From TrEMBL:
Name of the protein described by the UniProt record: Uncharacterized protein
Domain of life: Eukaryota
UniProt organism field: Lobosporangium transversale
InterPro entries: STL-like
């Protein structure tokens, strides 16, 4: 089994030339920002234009029959665009798409006559007749005129809205990714690192989306891939992540990056391509990534989130919308998804320095907004009320102005008036989400999502038909233990029903082993969903837990069996070959043909199970008997003594090992006489990792476990975790301070 990798930004101790250049560019840009910010934050050009810029009458002057004709175009799929340009190539394509209606929202600078295919063109005069409350406060000469188009489409019966611009040329069908496709969930592993650069997943960690917090661009950010819907039974799908209600498609050639990127890396513009083979992803609740209004699908249950704020600048409004919407998605069991590039962006002419000035609020406040949203709460269980509550809280913190509070109240009323049904609210609970994420890591799930992503990027990079794919970056982090063991099942056996050790045990090992199953006797009712019941004679046949795990979960790449009081040297184990047995090779064999003299160390002499087992001709195959005889040098029955507080069995031999141990259970063969014997019967010891085992039997030694965790040592036993919080914390601290060799 090969180690898995995540594709996130990371630093080596020696920074690359590209990284130094990138940081220098950001440093210079921020210097300009601080020198200009005081002026621009108070400049009338910083905010969107007000309606007083144009003396436009608010009276309805459009004949009823003219507006009624436009209302005849109804349908479920709508595209919403605002433009000040004559029809572009992109608009010619959009306006002629089958199964899609298009509404174009005009502004005072838009052409008076605008015709393109079957598009509905809402003139300024048309808009004044729509009786939407928001039209009274949305400024002219502003991108946020789009809000009127959203309401129009909803009023006409939309169930899906595609939010885009007149310079985005679709290169594929416009559709939501089916839940049955390979949509995987992408989350940060640490709650304090909430921002996710999804461009990294699609092969370009050197590029970041507009609105991504600048102070987090080059933070080493471990991420996890959770399974796709397709890989899970129906009852488990809700645990992976809520359904995608908003889907951002990436854009090739000239994607939506910020002005700092454009001003410092202009040579890359119009040539950027992402990996189209990478599977679509969704963000788990608690994670953020900015998304824009340029290539985005909204399902019906997310229509409330189309509202663009009016008190921030043009280059900020859709990003701010994207952030606050993500927070409220968590409250309705919804998620944000990202999919491969679906448009080629042929960007209209931009003044990059003007864009930079327009984006100042993004640079200074994005990180603060993410932190604010992650911690925001409201007691209301009505989504419309929660929207207004959030706008009020954002205005209080100066992320938006009071005008957006008024706008949000009007927006909620308008949605109700056009017949929109708000989805139900289930209040987001951070701990509940983390618990559900943990729940899907149970042994019922075996995910290869990391591998899927890694292979996709390799395929893109190797595409010789497109030389631009050579720039795809596959950042191979040093393998983390959780990646190395992502397809290993940790089987934990409790000899006694002392289950207070569960919490400290999981605290220590869950960060390293995503798949853990526990077995023990006399399981109390409140733990029956956590510990599986087994009767194993106080651990004398403890390997019964391993047999049960292999039977119930047969498709893992390996099985690591251990007892609850055994300390695993996780970072040492991470260096071992996952295709070999991990076990100290036994050194003591005893001839069972003559029991007249008890041998030295006769601790097992009164356990007749092996005699009965050897007398049973079905216990071994002929080849297995030959392997045992070769190891012991005894041409007949023999005991093989071997401690068995932990053992690793590779998946390729797990079925045979399980069968041998199952036959041993018929005769109650003692654990430390059975496991070593079974492994020798199945696998020659030259294919073993002969780890060292340290045992702390005597007074005082158990507190000195650190002294025994030396290179080459696989396990230390026993280390009691029962209610010993200090021991648990010491072990966690030690493990976090050690790196994989």
């Amino acid at each position: 089994m090969t180690a898995q990798f995540s594709f996130n930004n990371s630093w080596s101790t020696s920074m690359t030339r590209t990284s130094r250049k990138k940081l220098w560019a950001i440093f210079c840009a921020l210097c300009v920002f601080f020198s200009l910010s005081l002026f621009h934050l108070h400049s009338p050009f910083f905010r969107q234009s007000s309606s007083t810029a144009d003396s436009v009458s608010n009276k309805c002057t459009v004949p009823d029959e003219q507006l009624a004709a436009k209302k005849k175009l109804v349908g479920k799929n709508w595209i919403v665009v605002t433009t000040i340009n004559p029809p572009t190539d992109a608009m010619n394509l959009l306006c002629n798409l089958k199964e899609w209606n298009v509404v174009v929202v005009a502004d005072t600078k838009s052409p008076k006559e605008w015709e393109c295919g079957s598009c509905v063109y809402l003139t300024v005069e048309d808009q004044q007749c729509l009786k939407f409350g928001i039209t009274e406060v949305i400024p002219y000469r502003a991108y946020t005129r789009k809000n009127i188009g959203y309401l129009w489409a909803i009023q006409q019966g939309a169930t899906t809205i595609f939010d885009t611009d007149d310079d985005n040329l679709p290169n594929t069908n416009i559709t939501f990714e089916s839940p049955t496709e390979s949509v995987i969930t992408y989350r940060t592993d640490k709650p304090e690192e909430r921002s996710v650069n999804v461009y990294s997943h699609f092969g370009r960690p050197d590029v970041w989306p507009r609105g991504f917090p600048l102070n987090e661009i080059d933070i080493e950010r471990p991420v996890s891939y959770l399974p796709s819907y397709a890989s899970l039974p129906e009852k488990e799908r809700k645990l992976v992540g809520p359904p995608v209600m908003i889907q951002q498609g990436l854009a090739d050639l000239d994607p939506d990056v910020d002005a700092i990127f454009r001003l410092t890396q202009g040579q890359e513009l119009k040539k950027i391509k992402f990996c189209k083979k990478s599977p679509s992803i969704r963000l788990s609740p608690g994670s953020f990534c900015p998304f824009n209004s340029q290539n985005t699908l909204f399902s019906y249950d997310a229509f409330w989130g189309l509202l663009l704020p009016i008190t921030v600048s043009f280059r900020v409004c859709d990003i701010w919308r994207g952030y606050w919407v993500q927070r409220l998605l968590w409250d309705i069991n919804g998620s944000l998804g990202f999919t491969k590039p679906t448009v080629d962006q042929i960007r209209n002419a931009h003044n990059y320095l003007a864009d930079y000035e327009d984006e100042l609020q993004l640079y200074s406040e994005a990180s603060k907004l993410v932190e604010f949203l992650a911690n925001w709460s409201s007691p209301s269980t009505n989504l419309g009320t929660r929207i207004v509550d959030l706008m009020k809280a954002m205005a209080k913190e100066k992320f938006i102005g009071e005008g957006d509070v008024d706008l949000s109240e009007r927006w909620v009323r308008d949605l109700q008036n056009v017949g929109y049904n708000f989805p139900d609210v289930t209040l987001y609970n951070r701990q509940a989400v983390r618990n559900s994420i943990t729940a899907i890591q149970k042994p019922i799930v075996s995910t290869d999502s990391h591998r899927l992503s890694f292979e996709a990027l390799n395929q893109c990079k190797a595409d010789t038909t497109d030389p631009s794919m050579a720039k795809i970056q596959i950042v191979k982090d040093k393998p983390r233990t959780v990646d190395i063991f992502n397809d290993v099942l940790l089987v934990v056996n409790f000899n006694w029903p002392l289950y207070d050790a569960i919490e400290p045990y999981l605290s220590i090992y869950k960060p390293h082993f995503p798949n853990i199953v526990m077995y023990g006797p006399d399981v109390p009712e409140h733990l029956q969903g956590v510990v599986r019941s087994v009767s194993h004679n106080e651990g004398n046949i403890g390997y019964k837990s391993l047999v049960m795990a292999m039977e119930e979960f047969p498709n893992y790449s390996g099985y690591l069996y251990t007892n609850d009081d055994t300390l695993l040297n996780v970072h040492q184990l991470a260096t071992y070959d996952l295709d070999k047995v991990w076990k100290h090779v036994p050194i003591l064999s005893e001839d069972l043909r003559d029991r007249s003299k008890p041998p030295p160390y006769s601790w097992h002499w009164e356990r007749p199970g092996t005699t009965d087992m050897w007398n049973d001709p079905t216990s071994f195959t002929d080849i297995q008997r030959e392997r045992i005889a070769k190891f012991t040098g005894i041409p007949g029955p023999a005991d093989i003594r071997a401690f068995c507080d932990a053992v690793y069995v590779p998946g390729r031999i797990s079925l045979e090992v399980k069968d041998v141990l199952t036959r041993f259970l018929k005769h109650d063969v003692f654990l430390e006489l059975g496991v070593g014997l079974a492994l020798i019967a199945v696998e020659p010891t030259e294919n073993w990792v002969d780890w060292k085992e340290s045992y702390l039997w005597y007074g005082g030694e158990r507190e000195l476990w650190r002294d025994y965790m030396q290179p080459g040592v696989g396990i230390v036993h026993p280390v009691k975790l029962l209610k010993d919080r200090k021991a648990r914390d010491d072990i966690i601290t030690w493990m976090e301070s050690v790196e994989v060799v």
